[in-house]
Amino acid sequence: MPNDKDLTGVGVRVVGSSVQGLSTAEVAERVAAGQTNAFVQDTSRSVWSIVRANVLTLFNGIILACFIVLFAIGRWQDALFGFSAIANAVIGSVQEYRAKRALDRLALLNAPHARVLREGSEAEISLDDVVLDDTLVLRAGDQVPADGLVAASKGLQVDESMLTGESDAVEKSEGDRVLSGSVVVAGEGTAVVDRVGADSFANSLAAEAKRFSLVASELRSSIDRVLKWVTWFVGPVALLVLNAQMLAQGGWAEASASGAWRDAATATIAAVVAMVPLGLVLMTSITFAVGAVKLARQQVLVQELPAVEGLARVDIICLDKTGTLTQGDIVFDAAHPLTARPGWESVLSWYGVQKDANATARSLAGHFNEPPGLPLDRVPFSSARKWSAVVFDDGMWILGGPEMVFPARHSTDPVLQQLATQAAELATTGRRTLVLAHGTPTDDETVPADAVPVVLLTFKENIRPDAAETLSYFAAQDVDVRIISGDNPQTVAAIAREVGLDAPHGFDARELPEGDDEFLDVINNNVVFGRVTPDQKKRIVVALKAAGRTVAMTGDGVNDALAIKEADIGVAMNSGAAATKAVARLVLLDGKFSHLPSVVAEGRQVIANIERVSMLFLTKTAYATFLAISFGILLLPFPFLPRQLSVTDGLTIGIPAFFLALLPNAQRYIPGFLRRSLTFAVPAGVAVTLGLASYARLAANLQIPEAEIRTGSTLILAIIGIWILVVLSRPVTRFKGLVIGAMMVGLILVYSVPIARDFLQFTDPTLPTALLILGTSAACIALIEIVRFVHRRVAYRDAQEALHQRVSK
């Protein structure tokens, strides 16, 4: 850039040879004009989306319609379910809002920053404080905070895949546009901001970009499927029941004339309301929210609530070495001279003090202090080539992995042979190796043909104290591990052995086959991979997912971002690049790898408890649907009032579900949540339906009064409901026993307190009714036990099949 060029029109002024950026007065002027990067974009669900998800649902609409009908016909006593639905919506909204506030506070505290030039010096500011015409300073690992035009570029390469879907890095030259949300993967440069806030490309596509944040959730998709089925059934079943009730009241004409249609409508509403599994959706949302808040207390930021479930389903986890197995604090070990060449200490000193220096280069600063001269040119580090270079008066100096700078495997040059042998020996001790080479400068960013190795450098990494214990946990839980790193494969393998992995050697990713089948075989048969490029990391994750594996990927560098985005569950360290954290499902705020077992445990608790709770709710939906259909076909009066069902549902399902959903549960995840739930719920629903239908038919034949039939039906349902609760709570711990006992006491009070008896229209059963109640209850309990026995066998078979599939993969 010419020194006399005036770019004040775009906010860059060149004085001498330094870019000054905006002045304080110019910044204040733009802030006053509202030309800032401030943009309100929730880090979690918005308040409106939470309220909408808990209130404005199809089922709430059905409940509201039934509620209004009952009020209109003067049967407000039977509208209790309406208040229950309101309470569910309020509780769900409050719980999710509390989770949102906790997560938003964490996200705010850990928000990324931007670097800008102001008043001639570099400053780090929040993204919101970037203003129009600011000069951004961009380096590898940065996420571009606002749209702009490149003012200067030194090998600047940007990954725009999160915006465009194109995975190849794009070279950016002076005058090219950079878009907010893209990631700098190599080189450095500056850019002048020309679009901020809502006008920027990323924010204008925010809704579209959010498609990347939808983590796969078996719980969510399974429950959505059930709700869809129920939606299709509600209308036809309601008409079937209404017809039966009108005919039971003497026919449509007589019931309409006598006012008995009100009883028919009340019975129909009772049948419809019982079919709707309102509490299941509520329980799932609350369990996710509570799990996220519990993890937040352990410094784990959950970017999306269903991600709490995700890690419980993971059966293979891919780890980057640096920042996960090791602490990332590289320490310089030693220099091993190979070829006499003066000035190499000065070059290493220059590498150690650069602003874009990585941890390895920075570790050189304390050991090499000789001031270098001004470079004539440089080639920035690239994740693809894994080396960088700088040109001084005496030639070009290249710093990178020995096998990347000198890729020839069978060279006859004794110096290169010595380099290869010595590097391999040092790598097996767990040391990281780099070579500093010298040659004649080239014009095409390639290693000079006359390059010679000058000195071999070794570095040490501190292994995380919690790494071995964490990997041991995954091994015990049958979660496979793959270490994929950009470092020397033998170095990575040595570190893997130190943390307890069975890794006799590392596989060099440059030898990975092109064919998909052969590629997958190599991934399955090796544990450690070195010299892996960002695209290869992504390909490994994609290949494992295509093979049916549920993949987690952890990392902290920008080279991990593509793989983390592709993984089923991406986990980033808070010390990592902003781009990596932006695409991760979970962020470990204190960088402790040891939190992952807690995340897995929390996810397993969510899945196991929701599965147990879902069996309660789905059993109710099943028997309510079968009862409605059966009584509609048999043309029998529906044996419940809505108020009676509301009380029994609350005490046998709704209230205990709150407690069961939040209990500790370390049960391992087995695929097939919905199938297992329905395997119990449908047969159990059939058993309840057979019992109640038989009771109602026999009671009608004995000409027992309708009020007494309803009392008996409610007693039978309460007894069976309590027994189902006991069956699904096994093993019954002291706490579960207290919950079950409290529900039984509640039911006894409902039947014995006069005010409650009168409100619920209960009567004392006569001897025939009592005998029918006892006989029906005993028969149904026996059937429920048989159903549970068979269900456990099916669950065991599923577990064995899942294990067999895992082994075959």
From TrEMBL:
Gene3D superfamilies found in the cross-reference section: Calcium-transporting ATPase, cytoplasmic domain N, Calcium-transporting ATPase, cytoplasmic transduction domain A, Calcium-transporting ATPase, transmembrane domain, HAD superfamily/HAD-like
Keywords for the protein's UniProt record, in alphabetical order: Membrane, Translocase, Transmembrane, Transmembrane helix
P-type ATPase A domain boundaries: 109-208
TM helices/strands, residue ranges: 55-73, 229-248, 268-293, 622-641, 647-666, 678-697, 709-728, 735-755, 767-787
GO molecular function: ATP binding; ATP hydrolysis activity
Location(s), subcellular: Cell membrane
Main location per the UniProt record: membrane
UniProt keyword Cell membrane, yes or no: no
Presence of keyword Membrane: yes
One Pfam family recorded for the sequence: Hydrolase
InterPro entries: ATPase_P-typ_cyto_dom_N (IPR023299), ATPase_P-typ_P_site (IPR018303), ATPase_P-typ_TM_dom_sf (IPR023298), ATPase_P-typ_transduc_dom_A_sf (IPR008250), ATPase_P-type_domA (IPR059000), HAD-like_sf (IPR036412), HAD_sf (IPR023214), P_typ_ATPase (IPR001757)
UniProt topology in membrane: Multi-pass membrane protein
CC terms in the record's Gene Ontology section: plasma membrane
Protein name: HAD-IC family P-type ATPase
Classification of source organism: Bacteria, Bacillati, Actinomycetota, Actinomycetes, Micrococcales
